[in-house]
Amino acid sequence: MKIFVVNCGSSSIKYQLINMEDESVIAKGLVERIGIDGSVLTHTPAGKDKVRMESEIPDHVDGIKKVLAALVDPNHGVIKSMDEIDAVGHRVVHGGEVFSESVLVTEENLKQIEALSDMAPLHQPPNVAGIRACQKLMPNTPQVAVFDTAFHQTMPPVAFMYGVKYEEYKKYGIRKYGFHGTSHRYVAACAAELLGKKPEDTKIITCHLGNGSSITAVDGGKSVDTSMGFTPLDGVLMGTRCGSIDPAIVPILMQKKGLDNAGMDKYMNKECGVLGISGISSDFRDLEDAANKGDEKAQLALDMFCYQVKRYIGAYAAAMGGVDAIVFTAGVGENDIGTRAKVCKGLEFLGVELDAERNNVRGKVTEISKADSKVKVFLIPTNEELVIARDTNRLCGK
User: Fold this and answer.
1) Record-annotated residues binding ATP (predicted)?
2) Is 208 annotated as a binding residue?
3) Taking the model in full, what pTM does it have?
4) Distance between CA atoms of 278 and 106, rounded to whole angstroms?
5) What is the pLDDT of residues 99-114, one digit of tens each?
6) Any binding-site annotation on 196?
7) Is the same domain home to 106 and 241?
């Protein structure tokens, strides 16, 4: 089977075409600036040069149409016709309590997915737009929705409940949902394999660290707690997101800054985090450069981030009654040597012994702890697209 994996953002489409016989990527690419001047499609066929195509792309339907045209193009295409695409797997950010696993898309459950937009207003509408675009262009091709939140549906109530009135939870679904589920699920399974154990016999803490970051406690192969909450705003401070703050700060800042609900939401999601602390950038590479030149606020932002990640690791080790392995993944986790070292420093009491030489690596599966470290530390590049493709293949392969 050939699976077309689609991840739609508000003005972008990331995609891969994967051959499930050997799980190889046939082609991948990115559509940027949908509905904005300067739209561009960057298409990379396996083993060939990257192709950049600039043209007006007014909406997601047109974006998907141009991607499909690139896949079948005589010069840089990788398939002869769209008929070779057996199924489409879509990343969907929020499944609420309705979806605890991936599903074949029907009109009924698509409406349920759409109804969850209030819980992820920045992500859910473009996810739905991508599904509807593929339905329109490939009406006879099965579509599968794979949810970021599904992996975390195994959390117990003691972990996912907030201290609001119980009726608010029942009526409005106010609870922790967690995100980055496909990433945590993938790297936790890889870590269990590297440990030489069955997933059900492991306690693993997975650290998905990037512009958006979350940490998850995976006990026996199942998520039992995670740092992101009702929305992807909760948890550690991130590139531009504030992370967990005292809720009383919100009305005070709204009053002091004269912000309405939308303005406060934008402030917490787009103007805070390491960008807000440093006043320089949300990119950790820029912060490291500035910190190395003596910028105290850049150094503070990096120190705060590492401290908060470390704090979650300690909390989750306590929650699970121990830990066998810690995993670093995603853009910062896979590539930032200094961040990994700083997070692990001070965790020796848990049995963590980082190997500085082994840690001097980027972007490849590596055990970065010392050989005799009681708790193993791994760098494992995430592969969310492959998880989506595997679920799609499982549901459509029949």
Assistant:
1) 14, 208-212, 283-285, 331-335
2) yes
3) 0.92
4) 46
5) 999 999 999 999 999 9
6) no
7) no
